[in-house]
């Protein structure tokens, strides 16, 4: 691992990532960032993994030892590190970047890790299988297409939880609107029910000049209500 970077250096790294809108280019970027990712997001004061884990943990009813959790776009495994501290034990992870998956493997917390390009490939996980599914830090413009949330719901057990996050800064407003519109339409179809929406002012430090010092973000928690045919 390299020496800790300054905030300006991390900012440059993240802005470079934002330029790459092609999904293949994006995961290649994550391959190259994997070694320094955790150190850099700490500098950014990135809190989404903790906030999502804590939101799920507060609402979760059931046996934490037995619950099986799918961490989608798992990256290096920050979400699962928090969930493990909160008493959960069984984790599967999916990400499009082999480099990030390699780092996740070193945590020794996942029973299963798979490479999958969301939006291009469908989730190969069994239908109605997971007690909870999370997608943290990757539902945003240039990352995972909003339509993937259908698949998150599909692989969750009836009564299971789906926890998602997105950014609420200027460059992601259109994406956030699309995400919320699809979430509403899935609720109207009776697929899931909203449990909590947590709007957080200090989500992470801003890297773009068009934002304030911190950008805000949102954690959404849904509960699956029906089995799809
Ligand atoms: C900001 S990181 C978030 C990682 C982790 N969930 C966290 O909060 O630390 C975004 C992750 O999404 C993955 N990713 C981005 N677009 C993807 C796609 N289309 N399919 C699969 N993974 C993708 C990247 O490889 C990266 O690991």
From TrEMBL:
Transmembrane segments: none annotated. Residues 70-163 form the Methyltransferase type domain. The lineage of its organism: Eukaryota, Metazoa, Chordata, Craniata, Vertebrata. It comes from Erpetoichthys calabaricus (Rope fish). One of its GO terms (molecular function) is S-adenosylmethionine-dependent methyltransferase activity. The gene is METTL27. It comes from the Eukaryota. This is Methyltransferase like 27. InterPro entries: Methyltransf_11, SAM-dependent_MTases_sf. PANTHER family: METHYLTRANSFERASE, METHYLTRANSFERASE-LIKE PROTEIN 27.
């Amino acid at each position: 691992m390299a020496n800790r970077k300054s905030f300006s250096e991390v900012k440059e790294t993240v802005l470079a990532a934002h330029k790459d809108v092609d999904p293949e280019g994006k995961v290649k970027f994550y391959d190259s960032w994997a070694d320094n990712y955790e150190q850099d997001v700490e500098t950014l004061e990135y809190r989404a993994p903790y906030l999502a884990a804590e939101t799920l943990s507060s609402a979760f009813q059931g046996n934490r030892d037995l619950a099986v959790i799918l961490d989608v776009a798992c990256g290096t495994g920050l979400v699962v590190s928090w969930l493990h501290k909160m008493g959960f034990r069984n984790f599967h992870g999916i990400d499009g970047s082999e480099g990030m998956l390699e780092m996740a493997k070193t945590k020794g917390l996942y029973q299963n890790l798979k490479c999958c390009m969301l939006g291009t490939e469908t989730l190969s996980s069994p239908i109605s299988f997971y007690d909870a599914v999370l997608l943290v830090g990757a539902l945003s413009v240039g990352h995972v297409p909003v339509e993937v949330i259908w698949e998150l719901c599909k692989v969750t057990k009836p009564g299971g939880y789906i926890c998602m996050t997105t950014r609420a800064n200027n460059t992601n407003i259109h994406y956030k609107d699309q995400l919320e519109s699809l979430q509403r339409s899935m609720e109207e179809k009776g697929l899931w029910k909203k449990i909590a929406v947590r709007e957080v002012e200090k989500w992470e430090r801003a890297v773009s000049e068009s934002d304030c010092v911190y950008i805000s973000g949102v954690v959404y928690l849904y509960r699956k209500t029906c089995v799809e045919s």
